[in-house]
Each structure stands twice: as structure tokens, then as C-alpha cells.
From TrEMBL:
It comes from Kosmotoga olearia (strain ATCC BAA-1733 / DSM 21960 / TBF 19.5.1). SUPFAM superfamilies: NagB/RpiA/CoA transferase-like, Winged helix' DNA-binding domain. Pfam families: DeoRC, HTH_DeoR. GO terms for molecular function: DNA binding; DNA-binding transcription factor activity. Keywords: DNA-binding, Transcription, Transcription regulation. The keyword ATP-binding does not apply. Residues 3-58 form the HTH deoR-type domain. SMART domains: DeoRC, HTH_DEOR. This is Transcriptional regulator, DeoR family.
Amino acid sequence: MLTDERRMAIFEYIKKNFSATTEELAEHFNVSTSTIRRDLENLASKKLIKRTHKGAVINSPHAESSFLVNYNYMREEKKLIAKKAMAFINNDEFIALSGGTTSYMLATELINSELQGLKIITNSINIATLILESKKDFVLIMAGGIPRKGSYECVGEFTLRTIRAFNIDKFFMGVNGISIEGGISFSSFDEASVAQEFMLRSKEKYVIADHTKFEVTKPARVAEIAEVDAIITDAIPEETKFSYTQLGAKII
């Protein structure tokens, strides 16, 4: 397991259990306690966890879906992905942005770009607020509904009805898992339903996800690998890339 992958797994373990000791983590991940201490210091520096005398605790009461917690994880990688995604967006297009921190990074790139005439639809309160408070004159459509605590994403029938009213050029989708066996997947069934509706209404579909999302399967399956036009990521091993391209995926 690579260092970044192990740290993500440690973070997920602490999120699930709310706390963990250094010895417990060392045994679970089959590494030394000194390695675990370095991993915990790294996660603490990103404000994902809080260090304790014996180990660590999660840094948020809503950690499972906390936007602020996830925003600080793999932040530079997400910025790189957002910059790559910008190459696929042109003036006067109608684009959709899912919720999530990578999509938020893309929205940040958009409002600081020279692009004009965009129409943007999103179910993310955070992204909608970012665009509204910017100086850009983009047309913003909020697919409102029932907001989820922590992720600030609207879900439910009202959200789906709004999306169904439009024909969208391109959909940029942050996800929780990408795997050969599990396809493109989400942790939340409600958020997965919104993503599926966006996919149905969009001509082109792009996954935007950092390398820690690969070889991960979550409960809600949204699409097969070959159903998206491209997966935009930061960096994955060549052998992993080859496996996905064999299924028809375009990895960028």
C-alpha cells in the first residue's frame, strides 16, 4: 500500500470508529508505530484529525460527509485536477457540477478564469454561494431540495425535478469510488441519484477524482467505467491506468 493510500485508509478507519490508538492502527495496517505516528501527524497537519496522547480522534462531528474535512485532504492534488478539467470547458457552454470538494476546486478555477457566458447548474450550496459571490456574470441554476448536513448538497425529488428540466453540455462529477468491479460509486444513495440524473441530461460526462478514489468501491453504483467520457485525476500507476483503459476508460 502506498503512503497516500495508507493515510487515506487510516483517515477512513478513524472516521468510522471516531478514534484509534497508535498501537491499534499499527496492528491493523501492519506497519510500525513510528510509521503510524508520522501518518497521524500528516493527517493532523491537514486538520483531518486531532492527535491525542495515545493516538487520534476525528476532527468533526459530521466527519463522514464533512465538506471542511474533505476539503483539506489531498488539496493540492484536487487543485491540479481542477486545472486539468478547465481544458474541457469552453465559452457559452452549459455545465453541471456535482457537490464535493474537487468540484468546488473546479468552480474556483472557473470564477478566476477568462471564460464567459457559462451557464452552471449544481446541487451544491457551497458551489452556488461561491459563484454568486464572485464577479463573474455566469448564469447560475441551483438544483435545490433537501440539504444534507456536512456535505451541503441538495438531494431528493425537488432536486431531481429541477435537473430534468434541462439539456446540459457537460457534467463534472466528484465521486467516492472508482473500481473495475464496482464501477463509479458513491457513499450516499441520495447523492448517487442526483449524479445519475445529471448523467442522463448531459451530453458529456467527466469524473474528477484524485488517485485515492481508485480501487475503492462504495455502496451506490452510479455508472460503469466506459460510460463516462474521461476520468480526470492527478496521478495513478501505469499498470492501474492500463487496466482501466482496457475497459474503455480515458484517463487524463
